[in-house]
Amino acid sequence: HDHGFRAEIRTLGSIRHRNIVRLLAFCTNDREANVLVYEYMGGGSLGEVLHGKGGGFLAWDRRYRIALEAARGLCYLHHDCSPMIVHRDVKSNNILLGDDLEAHVADFGLAKFLRSGSGGGAANAGASECMSAVAGSYGYIAPGTLHPSTLIASISRLVTYTCDCFCL
């Protein structure tokens, strides 16, 4: 357990992307009490902005920019990190906003770290590993993860992308 946690800390601590919240420090002890310290995001979460008290108004061009910035962060995790990181819980409460409302992907509690070399390359290893367990928040889980068939998985990618952007 401790080895896995430390490996995740090393990986998350090495991520440097403008649309990923930065891990600044961590603390752990023998009783498995782990504390992660991330950079402060003064704009709160996208969920709070959209659904919180007094919130709800974001111009469409701002919503588009937030979606694009979050997608850039996720693209970095999928294509530029080693090991590849699959977030598995993308939702409005896990997109934090800076003071300038720039989007930052946060909350890696359910993230899966996929190592290449399992035969067939990272993309194939990732597909089989990700499908082995369902993770995420109700209302945001891709339908294809619940009924894994090629057709449903293909449709679910479109549906999930559309739903995630539509929630903005």
From TrEMBL:
Residues 1-168 form the Protein kinase domain. InterPro entries: Kinase-like_dom_sf, Plant_LRR-RLKs, Prot_kinase_dom, Ser/Thr_kinase_AS. Transmembrane segments: none annotated. The keyword Repressor does not apply. Gene3D superfamilies: Transferase(Phosphotransferase) domain 1. Pfam families: Pkinase. It comes from the Eukaryota. Keywords: Glycoprotein, Leucine-rich repeat, Receptor, Repeat. One of its GO terms (molecular function) is ATP binding. PROSITE patterns: PROTEIN_KINASE_DOM (PS50011), PROTEIN_KINASE_ST (PS00108). This is Protein kinase domain-containing protein. It comes from Aegilops tauschii subsp. strangulata. The lineage of its organism: Eukaryota, Viridiplantae, Streptophyta, Embryophyta, Tracheophyta.
